[in-house]
Amino acid sequence: MAKLKLGPLPKFGTVRMTIALPEPLKDELERYAAEYSRLYEPVEAAALIPHMLEAFMRSDRGYRSRKAQAARGQVR
Q: InterPro entries this protein is in (predicted)?
């Protein structure tokens, strides 16, 4: 059985935000949450969003490069 890219969720403190999603994206997120719940543990779709965003930013090479440059004081 194939595992999902988003593995078990870590526990962190939270900050509440409100976002607007297009309906097709919301539907897809709910399908993903259903599959996640089947493979790991029951979860609401909204609980996956922060972890998906974190995974996206972690995998964005351009962002990581600029973040590293900023840490070295090299960003203009």
A: DUF2274 (IPR018733)
